[in-house]
Design brief:
This protein is α/β, with parallel strands linked by helices. The protein folds into 2 domains: 14-46 and 293-387, Aspartate Aminotransferase, domain 1; 49-291, Type I PLP-dependent aspartate aminotransferase-like (Major domain) (Aspartate Aminotransferase, domain 2). Helices cover 36% and strands 18% of the residues. It has helices at residues 35-38, 47-57, 70-83, 94-111, 131-136, 140-143, 161-170, 195-206, 276-291, 294-313, 341-346, 369-387, and strands at residues 14-18, 21-24, 29-32, 87-91, 118-122, 153-156, 174-179, 209-213, 237-240, 251-255, 319-325, 328-333, 349-350, 352-354, 358-361. The radius of gyration is 21 Å and the shape is globular.
Amino acid sequence: MNYITTYQPMDISFSHGAGHYLWDSQGKKYFDALCGIAVTSLGHNHPKITQAIQEQASKLLHTSNIFQITAQNELAEKLTALTQMKQVFFGNSGAEANEAAIKLARLYGHSKGIETPSIIVMEKAFHGRTMATLTASAGRKGQAGFEPLVPGFVRAPYNDIEAIDSIASNRDDIVAIMLEPIQGEGGINPPDPDYIPQLRKICDEKGWLLILDEIQTGLGRTGKLYNYMHYDIIPDIVTSAKALGNGVPIGACLMSGPACNLFQPGKHGSTFGGNPLACHTALTVLNVIESENLSENAQIMGDNLRHALIEKLCTMPEVRGIRGQGLMIGIELDRPCRDILPIALEHGILFSVTSESVLRLLPPITLCQEDVDIIAEKICDVITTYYD
């Protein structure tokens, strides 16, 4: 194989997909409860998304950001209107969006006269694999060999306000807090209900930026368009990607309040970011989510799925817990369990294992109750088979 082995792909490839299903090259059908890790949240070959891609591809794929791009302006207007944010920068991925957020925080710190601005980041965090986002992430396994890492990050335990207070009282170089509102790669870890609002309050008091990485939690996945909308707060920076293009690469870094107007001409850029194809597709994605009330649907179907899983698995001592919000669900087992994935393929369902022992379910936000029943039944069968 000539392709570099930074991944460990399973011995399966898919020929096509439709709705909630994928078919492998042998013709076997699988329920996609992973969505390419929260990317194809509207399912595969969604008619409106496919039409949008085809229409735009027949007109124009790329010009350059040295010209006005109509679809980019329309998407920016739509996103800021839906989120109450004020400005947006478009890139091509979640890592790029988070990189932009980190650069904004540093610009903000320097504007306040802080020579070496630092950002509080969390244990078990994941923000990407560029040098800065890798450093902001928590896994030493991923960081090893890439030293020296980027300075300017302070690590704190997630969901621990006292730890943030302690850092605040001992350092004068902090300019921002950056976190996932629900940790994804860290094991599907939701915080206490008052954690995010308390962080907002601390940032207001200290003059820090609150940066929320909504790469995985955004676009309806947790029951609101973005997870912060559950808390009646407005972050200073929100990053978005994955489901924004339903498979077409696009990332967005949204700004409000003191984070606005920090990027001036020449301070940041992206050759492909905000191109006509990606922006037209993303605009269609937003319109579908909004017009079909899919955020609300994700909340309802997610509640139903968690309840069904709890009911079916509650008697199994090997299942340590079932947690999440909306259609972002983790099932923690009592051991490292990557070897469960071939069993899942045998039962015709796709999911991933994160944090070594957590089954991660990120099914389409277009689920109906029949789909919920199918997922719950298949997951129960997979886990039962695994422990037999």
